[in-house]
Amino acid sequence: MLSFTPSISFMKTFVFHPIISHATPFWLHLCYFLVVSLSGYIALKVTNPRTTNINGNNTTTKLYNLDLYFTSVSATTNSSMATLEMEVFSNTQLIFMTFLMLVGGEVFTSMLGLHLRSKTLKKIDNNSIEDDDDDDDTIKCYNKCTKYLGYVVLGYLIIIHTLGSTLVTLYMIMTPSAHNVLKSKGLVLNTFSIFTIVSTFSSCGYLPTNENMIIFRRNPGLLLIVLPFVFLGNTLYPPMLRVFIWVLERFTKRTEFSYMLNHNKEIGYCHLFSSKECWCITATVIAFLGLQVVVFVGMEWRSGVMEGMNSYQKFVGSLFQSANTRHAGEYIVDLSLVSSAVLVLFTLMMFLPPYTSFIPISHEQEDAPQTIIRIKKQKKMRENILFSQLSYLVIFVIVICITERKSLTDDPLNFNVLNIVFEVISAYGNVGLSTGYSCKRQLNTDEHCEDKMYGFCGRWSSAGKCVLILVMFFGRLKRFNLHGGKAWKML
Hints:
By secondary structure, this protein is an all-alpha fold. It has helices spanning 5-22, 25-46, 65-76, 91-104, 106-126, 133-174, 176-185, 189-201, 220-232, 237-252, 255-262, 264-267, 275-300, 311-323, 340-351, 380-384, 389-403, 405-410, 417-428, 462-476; strands at residues 51-54, 57-60. It starts with a helix and ends in a 15-residue tail after the last helix.
């Protein structure tokens, strides 16, 4: 029997390793998301959608290629922009989407970066010059810490997802009203629990139900269980990671964990911050959450948005809705009914990066420190021609207004600039919140119009959807252009 080991070794040594070691982080991430989203599209395409029973007959919803690819990109970039109702997907397709959300999440991709860097450093360590003992010791120490940090992040992922899915499963079993929802919709309990936690932790916002969390808004217990996971994989990931490492250092007494805590900049992991920075991020998250809750409660407490909910349910729902604007995207109310003032505030919250704080924080990229691996010169020319993030968003909005110009004229109550801006910012922030579309708001009533429980972009033209796909990719990779536009001087 022939052995393929030499061939695999040759490919790793002479093909993949040179490409990975010389490619910039931006291109590595872009290629990764393109490959994963394409693979997800193929998986969704070859599997059958869910069959629905109408008058005793099984019917299958036709899923178009663009909508399937749109969904795959949305799940991979953790955007949860929807052009299809979630209940058209079969249990197998939901499992595939769970995988896409997991491997596309920021915590997971950063963990892959750590393991990749550890492999690269190991090779450098093996080929290091023995004459320079100090540099050799530094590389070995850095290599070991990077390797350990990769395992720490992996452990964090496993613990969080196991705990979260277990809690959701137990709640659904013990709460008849919540369990009956799954039963009436034909959803598998374990799939629902894992899907929900993976989606929430990765800040995606998809749920297997058409109504998202609206159908569970009278179940504050479920909302409170899911709420912490909105922060654990997103805005509060750096503080929680630091706490996790601190606990490991106290129990194991290993110097590697101590080194991580005291030399976070040298480690070069973009989510590992100093204690002071973590406190600033935490304070900012709490302040923004408090601001949103106050405004949302003040504007919507007595409105029809939360009709049928008691005071406790309204408060928990307000807390949950406000937390999801950065950047999980789950919702318990119909956002088309929310006041414009709240929508503008939500738009600002979706635009802000997850680690925004009152004290400017310098984010290191996932490359190893310059003093250990190599000195990289800044390409000033490339930075000078870049626009700011806001400039690109304005361009995207203008292009979409052009592609949807007919609808803007014929259906102005649904297709207005505020709704388009909200949708674009939501896609850019990889949030997934949407004002939706309502046949009742049509000025020229279409008797064939049927309300669907998916996002506003589901009513856009194919060209508009393609532009929004670019926005989702741009938003997922926006940290590589945080310094864009600095050459422009407003005098």
